[in-house]
Amino acid sequence: MIRIGMVGLGKMGLSHYSMVNAHPDVEVVAVCDSSAYLLGLLNRYTGVETFNDMSKMLAQSKLDAVIISTPSVLHAQMVKTALDAGVNVFCEKPFSLDPSTSRDLTELARSKKLVTQVGYHYRFVGAFKEVKRLLDSGAIGKVSHILAEAYGPVVLKPKGSTWRSKKSEGGGSLYDYAAHPIDLVNWYLGVPSEVRGTILGQVFSKETDDEVFSTMVWPDQTTAQLSVSWSDPSQRKMSTKITVFGSNGRITADRQECQTFLTDATAAPEGYIEGWNVRYTTDLTDEVYFYVRGEEYSAQLDAFVKRIEGGEVEGQNSFGSATGADEVLAMMVADANRDYTGIAAGSAPQADRGLFRRRTRS
Q1: Backbone phi, psi, residue 35, to 5°
Q2: What is the pLDDT of residues 170-211, one digit of tens each?
Q3: In angstroms, rounded to a whole number, what is the distance separating the alpha carbons of residues 192 and 181?
Q4: Full-model pTM
Q5: What is the rounded distance in angstroms from the CA atom of residue 254 to the CA atom of residue 10?
Q6: Interval 219-247 mean pLDDT
Q7: Which label site among 7, 284, 287, 325 has the fewest CB atoms less than 10 Å from its CB?
């Protein structure tokens, strides 16, 4: 049995707790949180050991792994504390707020041969996995552009302060929402070389962003447009959609289905034909051991457990791949703060400005 300790018992922490506690190969032996009320309830009704100090939990509970679901600004130090203690780590996204720290933690985990994973659960959604399979097969030819969208109703009016409403603690739609489609685009194309025209807009929030719009660019001039808002009243919950344009067709995928148009089906996987093809997530998703919220949440925890059992240091959503998302997030923050005041409407483009830079297609 894999002995796991939970760190942070907010919405995601309790969600992870319910799922991993039901895993047949896992025993949750300890939990850590700052809420004495919550710890008291859990100890009374489950008997699990409770701590308000992560270092004491690591020293006393003989853990194989921890699941960290705390405010984003706390991730880096807690991950280092866990790695120094020699335990495997699952951390909620974003991995850290500083990509140089992300790289250091990735190397530390590798040097200790520890299993790591970050909670980018969309890589476990059947429809988005099918996009990856189609792109790897070359089914739609050379990719020229991706449209990556995410919308939801998180902030629909000015509201009280929580860590999600504070930029200094890693709050905002950039880290909370945009990180997911950015990670998917990285999975499909790799980390972009630059970003341009980033807007971190406010609708209701005073201290952080509610909307994110940006263009990602790769060295071969492939581009991706990011459009994200967590202040969209038309949505009941977060919806994420990816559209990929290629020289031989187009793919559109969301959590429900993957639609593919092919001009020529020669390079496509078996079963695909010329014209429109539709594959539903229900047909593309494997059965999971326990269901809460969606199969992908249980599937990502199952993958983490199996990698620990198999000693697989590298795997889906390891710290290395999550560092790529952190790099793009940092590029967007820097681009949004770039000074464009010297560029007047209708003036000649400036070659050294990223927004107006022109590249020669190779």
Answers
A1: -90, 110
A2: 789 999 999 999 999 999 999 999 999 999 999 988 889 999
A3: 13
A4: 0.91
A5: 27
A6: 96
A7: 287
